[in-house]
Design goal:
The protein is mainly beta. The protein has a single domain (45-223), classed as Beta Barrel (Porin). Helix content is 4%, strand content 64%. It contains two helices and ten strands. It has helices spanning 36-40, 67-70, and strands at 46-62, 65-66, 71-84, 89-102, 110-125, 133-151, 154-177, 180-198, 201-204, 210-223. An eight-stranded antiparallel barrel has the order 1-3-4-5-6-7-8-10. 28% of the residues are buried.
Length: 224
């Protein structure tokens, strides 16, 4: 199967402010002299995140189906919308959709897959200034893997749906301007598939088995 391209960007140089300048009030955040990190502190606002990366599956979809035997991984694009309660804490929702790369596709059969993730998250920044800002998030939600196999014009759809019980993320955010920051992140999630569909027929999965996703990528943040 085709290898997955990993993403890399060159971080932009940090903006700077006069070291002797006092901490800005909320009314002074529009001042062009304020640094990006100062402008982001203590100002509740909406925050839009856009992430891209590569995720590799571990564990099992069902008792007899290890995740590595089913897929080489996924390449999701994730969008999250958060409301910043303070300069450090934000609550929001996330949704991810992207390619899933099936493993074990029979010769002569065309196989394609999709991955969907939806849920709620809480994000916390460990710092409000100093250039690069470390952050972490905790979330949970719904996930679905689907696959379409095509042979001689005949398509067969299959899918597995379940719950993402825990989703942990850790990253570094580099403010470039008052409204934009980006940086790398790592993610790990744990969940269980509850049902499986084949050609329109759904069956419950029993016994349920845990599976995991480990992911690395880049995240851009826009303050609205």
């Amino acid at each position: 199967m085709r290898a997955i391209l990993f993403f890399a960007f060159v971080l932009a140089g940090p903006a700077f402010a006069s070291p002797g300048a006092p901490a800005p009030s909320q009314a002074s955040m529009a001042s062009p002299g304020a640094s990006p990190t100062e402008a982001l502190a203590d100002s509740p606002r909406f925050e839009l995140g856009l992430s891209v990366g590569y995720a590799y599956g571990l564990g099992r979809e069902t008792r007899d189906a290890p995740m590595p035997d089913l897929t080489f991984g996924t390449l999701p694009l994730t969008l999250d919308l958060n409301y910043a309660l303070s300069g450090r804490l934000a609550l929001g929702v996330y949704g991810g959709y992207g390619l899933m790369f099936p493993n074990g596709c029979p010769e002569g059969v065309s196989c394609s897959g999709r991955a969907l993730h939806l849920g709620l998250r809480a994000r916390y920044r460990f710092s409000e200034g100093g250039g690069i800002i470390p952050w972490a998030s905790l979330g949970a939600g719904y996930e679905r893997l689907s696959e379409t196999d095509t042979y001689q014009g005949i398509m067969v759809d299959s899918a597995a749906s379940g719950v993402e019980l825990l989703r942990l993320e850790f990253g570094l955010s580099h403010p470039v301007s008052r409204g934009f920051a980006f940086g790398p992140y790592l993610s790990a999630s744990f969940g269980e598939f509850l049902s499986r569909e084949l050609a329109g027929t759904s069956t419950d999965i029993s016994p349920r088995t845990p599976h995991f996703w480990v992911m690395a990528g880049l995240r851009s943040t826009f303050w609205l």
